[in-house]
């Protein structure tokens, strides 16, 4: 844009201006500089393509853009300026990174949005360089500006990223209110807070920070408390002036109050526009007086709740009247005297007001009777005086005591209710003289604060508190239980005392326990022999009186947590991370467990020192406790001001001793709960033991497999106090294998204990120990109790043979039902001596096959053919092979002779569980069924149910009941319960019964379900409740306490305590889960690197360390034992070049094995957008990034995703992702609650030197559930790869996909090829296909079962998503598709069970054979309109039945190509068997 001088009208000349009605052409002398008028203004268009909407042209972001529908010029986009303005210039932009192009554009204007005139005639504008062009238009007063596009050389559609309209506005300026800003830095609160956008941001003086209310929580209040009652002239509300904050309108009222009075309106509710062009500032004039001001919001067009970067309250402080305030406190209470002793009452009178007080009096009452009066002089504000009244003597008894200042109210005070103090006087007679009673007290040390170089003298006082004289005796002193000296005490009369001292020399830095005992030999007869000792602590510090931070790195806990701001952040030595309590959950506490009982000196509390953390005041108390005792106050609750200028820290002096310290919060002006980034507890450890394991050894040192091993642990007490008896756990590879008793150990001493751990298979093992595992001994340091011997124990094979089954092979490998199958078994002698001849046995189903194995020398392998065959049965079977089945060979290990694996027969995966449909059992709830069109996206439970039916339970006692046909010790329940009212899901139990007996409560959840919205765009949905919903179901799983046999009657019943408003039960899986696998000898456990199962703490560091060690050749295999292991960051390879977030380096040459998918489970608790550990915004904070040659088996990966993306959230993460390269195999991995289960491939430009597409990748036994996008996607040149014998349920996009995307190194070489999806079972994809192939050659979809797609085909071949071309053959064979197909994209497009869609490119070489298609929602096979050709489709031996709302085979009107049918059977199809729409150029022949 350029600013121009306008041509002046010549005096006396006649100027004719012609314009359409309602349009004013402007001519004048010199114009004001044009300003941007269009930022954030509403925009509309003639059409939009997908997410490229009109609003993008006024959002100030050149990277976002509007695009019209393709191949349909002309198109237009227009901006509504909100009011008429003089338009002088228009700047048009496209994204900066796009290549050069020209667009033909006409610029038009309108005052009413209907009649338009030309501002600048049609012209071709070249976009080069910065991709922006400026157009000087005829100066015209208009409200609407339109850019009409009739051509684009770069794309067959109109495309603009910004339409910037410049000119002058007629809106008059608002005069600024008079006065100063009274809100800056003042306490401020809000009714709700969105994430970290807290109220305090609105008064911190920075528009870069802001407050935002919780989504949809209207009305939403923002309240600031002024320093005093003030006279107000205006309120200024600001947003960030950055153009990225587009225009918006917020509706709010301004209210005020004085003190705790009621709120009154200062300015009625109104809509206030915020525009970046005017600084995003709104000024609201007000008048009145208030101590508190609040904004009450009811709407915001730019977000889901109010937003305020700065709130300024303009005015002046109203003078506050001052008054005195007299208060009184007793000097001694209670007062103890004898009947003959006069009672002297002392008190302190203080003026705590803000003005001086006149002289007055104080009266003393005893037992309700006035006994004296004292004069109180005039007192300045803050001054005090003492008074004394003699109340005489009283008889034995207890008397109430009251002192009242200014009893006649002669002084006018600000508070007349706090003028009295109460107490008591206790009068008692003394005992008769009987015996001495010796006591001792420790009064201090010399020097008072010794250092290690000081000779220390301990001082004390010996007293005789008895009623008779005491003979001479001594005082004995011990230090940490050791005698260090005595002092003589002479004879003491009754009531007499004597000072004593003992010199103990120099001492090392630390805290010591002092115990003084008077008359230790008991030579003096006393009235009380139990009060002769006194204790104290001696602190010797390098810097006198200065302790260390005892909280650093210690375990921290909290009563609640907001998002991912966990307690541990307060003690992690990083001031930028912090803990925050859940909004409004007061009182809220943050506690830290110290390493041992310690003497406390100071507590330091901080929030992040960044300037963005504005001033705030937090109110908290400090408490301490010892062990599990009661909490006691270390510092009473007080308000502490945190200011960025002073480092946002406060230091609070404390005293006392504790093992645990906690802060108890009751207020925070800057957020909805307490916030702490730094918690330091300064002090010195008290005397305590410190148990450590210094050595663990094995006997024998070099054992063989048959030798029992004894582990011996050496335990040392490194503390300064003796330890009580305890135990030590002995470990192998981090797992407990035995325990030994540890006796009491004196300070500085050691003891050695041992226990037998039995035999171990050949391999290398890390041995170790953990002393005091239950924490029964309070220690100086509880974190140093473990030890691992760095030298592994190597167990070798015992002399002799050892036969082992390595593999089972079948012929054919994937037999059809009824096929004759033969087998071979591979047997190895892994022993050290020859094995004689033996028999190898295979059990398959009910058949037992045997074969003869000849003699095998040590290390030899033989492939043994088995006699006989097996007839393949539906569903497959488990193969169990046993070497030396008749025990003819005496082996060194008789426990490793067996191998079991599955054989898959026919279609689908051979899954180890049996599924039971709720509606197929008996039930007392309500049957839920889909409508005839299987409508999706409108909260349709029936459509989203397996088999399109489920059962709803709404009342107590209702149930679903089924009878098992298989044994089981586990359960999976697919169900739906309601979302939480504000979104985010909830948990609720349901009761499980077996044969009528209660088994347990099973927790169901909706935390990963319920997405809202009517759009079908992939990232257009929201987690915020409102309107139509989809993805209604989720799954819960549980291991049962026992195994239940086939024939067990299971019941899911809504009982008392099952609190969900409703339960929709869809299906149940029952599975007999095998015991955990044993750790292979060659593997090293992640526990050796510090991982701890089931403790809820993040194990990522340990897992990453183990994987890195394997990758670097330090270990041979990573073992993940049975347990729950928390993972909050993706496992990958650290990029030495630090090339950025998008350039990730995956792991290579790694083997990771687990104990089974039900046993070894990785999980994350943090949603990706709340994690600070993301390495890639699409890949999440869990799972593994793989580059090549990686084997992963027998684990589960449970993510934290709740949405595909959008809605202010990151994508839900990927379980396994990366290049995958060569040599990678993944088996028996369960992935759930991820955005994508497995994404194979990276774009070539992502670290080009690491380019290595998947080649020979094999995924088998996969169990992928409840994702928000794909299950498994082969992309970026994947080749020669397979997904086999895997199951998928409730995937968001394609359950299985091959996408031959073009972002590869060489498009001619790196097109996808020779990939195969074989024997998989797919159920309930909720957004896209069961299986899809987008480009590539010689690929197949064979022997799969696909059920219940919500809206897309069961199988689809397509060329949308810009793939590389199809080539060779694409085979779809022997598949079963049931209840597939549906309607999508605003329910305007209907898809068949199998759909071929040549969107842009041809799809040649397609064969569909040996396939059953039943109960399709629309067509059985659909040939869909597109720009490509589908030639010579071969459809053979296919059965298509009962297409509900469509044809058996449909050729649409715009499809080109032909199909040849052979032996195709069709019946029951609603609109006909073979249907060709009018105009179609597709020819179908054969039958």
TrEMBL record:
Cite the SUPFAM superfamilies for this sequence.
Galactose-binding domain-like, Pectin lyase-like
Its GO biological process annotations read:
carbohydrate metabolic process
- Keyword annotations: Signal
Ranges of residues in domain F5/8 type C: 23-168, 169-316, 533-684
Q: Where is the signal peptide?
A: 1-32
Q: Which domain of life is it from?
A: Bacteria
Annotated protein name in UniProt: F5/8 type C domain-containing protein
